[in-house]
Q: What sequence folds into this?
């Protein structure tokens, strides 16, 4: 079954491009949300396996959404990856894709990298879960 | 440099037509300085100015009052109970509330205000503060802005009244406290308590710390007194930062024994990176920084947008930064001329009058010394001017970057993902070339923004004693693929063991990556880069080569040379190499910021960097860093 991914970014063109590229692989069902404050609601309805979350959004920051998700008993296991524009070369070199324990991807990202980060994420999740027997 | 600034102050008096109050003949003018906290090294400069007689020389008899619990220094100064006060950046808020305060000088170039949280795991971040109990005073606006910037709303923490007792954190009565990084950690360290420090600077909020202020009234009625008090205070600060132990003795003897000698030593050491006395003239304020603070206040709704600084910032020497320096320079040259003429005149006269040989010789020597001193001063003036101009340029580039990064990166993301999607749909060869060009263009734009962000961050250095060879190894590892692709060999020549230097390895590695990529790009294909590291005792010639006056002859330094066998660079570019946006690379291969960023990092380390053409062809970059010694940690 396809993995479900929710993409939250205030820019509709970005969510559209991410959706097109991820769905092109045939492995994901993608839903998009452009209003930060509706992200929690969308998570509750769509029950995504992963959320791609923009950090800087008007109204509600990505980190606030993440904090609310983690505080919600029903949604606290939801996984997310941050999308951020504020990355310097130094940080890229140092952190290996992790800031404060969360995976992040730097904008602008290529389709290849985007798919790779998402795939890596699911592969890691799988190896963490107990076997099917 | 310090000597130079002292000289500047003296010179300012001569040129600016400032009449120094004549102290001896008249009674001293009694004024009061209101501190914002209890006596501590935090106010060292003022004690020094009083003790060493700087205030007396300025015609002032200064009383220094510490703050009583609950006392408000701004209120005390506005009520006329003190003429001068020590304030914080919140002066902006007072000013907005209609209170006529004027900032005279900034002592702490960076605010010491931080959040300190109990360490629960090594990977914890500021976001782990959510749900915690935090002791935060009502005026914690700077930290409030920090939390907001990090997306943490205040109702997600449990706010406790501040006890100002670090023991409460140790005993678990709270999980985090608002604190001054200059003093509270002292008690935590002593208790072997594991904690983490979160500074607003990590999210781009860079406030000034302690400043010196007065009122519009005082400035209007006693402009000379204000000028003299400010100058004497800054002179005191200069002295205090050069002689911390002496001032600590003074505090213990005359002001306060509330804390131990050890505590004050800790405080003095912690203050150095916040004052940057080696880089920034004590007292310096940049209007751009104040605007940044005003904007940050506006972000959290504490100030209106576009708050005007008019009348708020004191200007001791109008147009100081450029015209004034030029004027000094011209005056210095004039003086040199005059002294030369006088020397000639005296020499002739001497001959005619057949004065004794010894006397003539002595006069000649004195004049010769004066002449040399002036020449040296002229050189230092030029250097200071260049440094000031550069700091200004870097600051404005950084501010711009933080603002545009977000706005530019989002469209870039759309273009990049759009192009990638289309290239899957239209996979003919002719399309591929076009699409690759577009991708290349996106990478170029992205690189410029990232470099600009690097400049804007100005994060504090995390320094420790390190071996520079390891930093270079690391840099080579990180860009090996780029160099091997060009068939370039790296030749190392190193002394091991190498004396350690006191540096932030993560920031230095960036410098070497930049220099090595520049060398590789200069070579193009097939060649070699030679990296020589050694420890040397500086000769006069070495100093000339390094181009900066940070070091003294005879000093032990670690030197790194990176030589390439590329074509070198046209000599007329030599001065421009470190300028932001200057690049010799073909369109699209460099942002023109790599060397500007590298130089900024090296200067922050108190080191030097220069680039020159080698006589045998190719270019060579020379870097020098002070050798680490326990007592140099403070520098």
A:
């Amino acid at each position: 079954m396809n993995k479900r991914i929710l993409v939250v970014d205030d820019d509709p063109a970005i969510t559209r491009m991410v959706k097109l590229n991820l769905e092109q692989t045939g492995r994901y069902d993608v839903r998009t949300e452009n209003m930060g404050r509706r992200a929690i609601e969308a998570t509750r309805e769509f029950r995504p396996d992963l959320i791609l979350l923009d950090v800087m959004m008007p109204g509600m920051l990505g980190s606030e959404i993440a904090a609310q998700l983690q505080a919600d008993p029903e949604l606290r296991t939801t996984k997310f990856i941050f999308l951020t524009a504020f990355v310097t070369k130094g940080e890229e070199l140092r952190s290996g894709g992790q800031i404060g324990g969360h995976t992040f991807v730097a904008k602008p990202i290529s389709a290849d990298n985007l798919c790779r980060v998402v795939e890596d994420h699911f592969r890691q999740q799988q190896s963490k879960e107990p076997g099917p027997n | 440099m310090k000597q130079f600034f002292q000289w500047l102050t003296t010179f300012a008096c001569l040129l600016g037509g400032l009449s120094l109050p004549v102290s001896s003949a008249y009674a001293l003018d009694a004024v009061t300085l209101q501190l914002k906290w209890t006596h501590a090294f935090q106010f060292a400069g003022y004690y020094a100015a009083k003790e060493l007689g700087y205030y007396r020389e300025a015609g002032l008899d200064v009383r220094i009052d510490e703050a009583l619990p609950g006392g408000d220094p701004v209120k005390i100064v506005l009520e006329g109970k003190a003429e001068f006060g020590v304030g914080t950046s919140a002066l902006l808020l007072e000013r907005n509330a209609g209170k006529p305060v004027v900032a005279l000088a900034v002592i702490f170039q960076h605010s010491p205000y931080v959040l300190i949280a109990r360490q629960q795991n090594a990977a914890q971040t500021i976001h782990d503060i959510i749900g915690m109990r935090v002791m935060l005073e009502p005026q914690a606006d700077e930290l409030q802005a920090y939390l907001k910037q990090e997306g943490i709303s205040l109702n997600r923490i449990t706010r406790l009244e501040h006890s100002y007792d670090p023991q409460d954190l140790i005993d678990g009565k709270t999980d985090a406290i608002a604190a001054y990084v200059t003093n509270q950690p002292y008690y935590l360290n002593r208790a072997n308590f594991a904690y983490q420090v979160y500074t607003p600077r990590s999210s781009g909020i860079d406030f000034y710390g302690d400043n010196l202020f007065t009122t519009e009234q005082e400035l209007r009625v006693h402009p000379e007194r204000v000028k003299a008090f400010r100058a004497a205070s800054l002179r005191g600060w200069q002295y205090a930062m050069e002689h911390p132990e002496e001032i600590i003795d003074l505090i213990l003897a005359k002001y306060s024994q509330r804390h131990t000698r050890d505590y004050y030593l800790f405080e003095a050491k912690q203050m150095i990176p916040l004052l940057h006395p080696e880089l920034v003239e004590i007292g310096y304020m940049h209007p751009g920084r104040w605007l940044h603070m005003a904007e940050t206040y506006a972000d959290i709704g504490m100030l209106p947008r576009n708050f005007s600084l008019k009348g708020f910032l004191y200007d001791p020497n109008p147009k100081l930064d450029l015209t004034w320096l030029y004027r000094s320079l011209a005056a210095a040259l004039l003086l040199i001329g005059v002294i030369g003429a006088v020397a000639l005149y005296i020499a002739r006269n001497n001959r005619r009058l057949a004065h004794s040989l010894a006397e003539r010789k002595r006069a000649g020597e004195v004049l010769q010394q004066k002449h040399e001193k002036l020449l040296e001063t002229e050189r230092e003036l030029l250097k200071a001017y260049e440094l000031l101009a550069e700091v200004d340029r870097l600051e404005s580039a950084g501010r711009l970057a933080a603002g545009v990064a977000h706005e530019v990166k989002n469209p870039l993301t759309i273009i990049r993902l759009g192009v990638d999607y289309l290239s899957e749909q239209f996979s003919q060869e002719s399309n591929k070339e076009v699409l690759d060009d577009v991708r290349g263009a996106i990478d170029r734009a992205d690189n410029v923004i990232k470099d600009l962000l690097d400049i804007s961050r100005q994060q504090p250095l995390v320094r420790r004693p390190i071996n520079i060879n390891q930093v270079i190894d690391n840099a080579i590892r990180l860009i090996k693929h780029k160099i091997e692709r060009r068939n370039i060999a790296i030749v190392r020549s190193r002394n091991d063991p190498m004396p350690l230097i006191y540096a932030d390895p993560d920031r230095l590695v960036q410098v070497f990556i930049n220099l090595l990529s520049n060398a590789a790009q200069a070579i193009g294909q097939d060649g070699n880069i030679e990296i020589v590291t050694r420890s040397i005792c500086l000769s006069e010639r070495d100093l000339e080569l390094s181009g900066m006056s940070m070091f003294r002859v005879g000093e032990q330094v670690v030197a790194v040379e990176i030589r390439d066998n590329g074509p070198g660079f046209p000599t007329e570019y030599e001065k421009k190499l470190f300028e932001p946006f200057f690049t010799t690379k073909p369109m699209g291969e460099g942002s023109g910021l790599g060397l500007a960023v590298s130089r900024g990092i090296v200067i922050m380390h108190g080191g030097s960097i220069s680039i020159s053409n080698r006589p045998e062809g190719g270019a060579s970059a020379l870097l020098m860093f002070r050798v680490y010694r326990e007592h140099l940690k403070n520098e």
Summary: The mean pLDDT of chain A is 83. The interface with chain B takes residues 11, 13-14, 17-18, 20-21, 24, 55-56, 61-64, 67, 71, 83, 85-90, 92-94, 99-101, 107-112, 114 of chain A (CB under 8 Å). The longest strand of chain A covers residues 3-8. The radius of gyration of chain A is 14 Å.
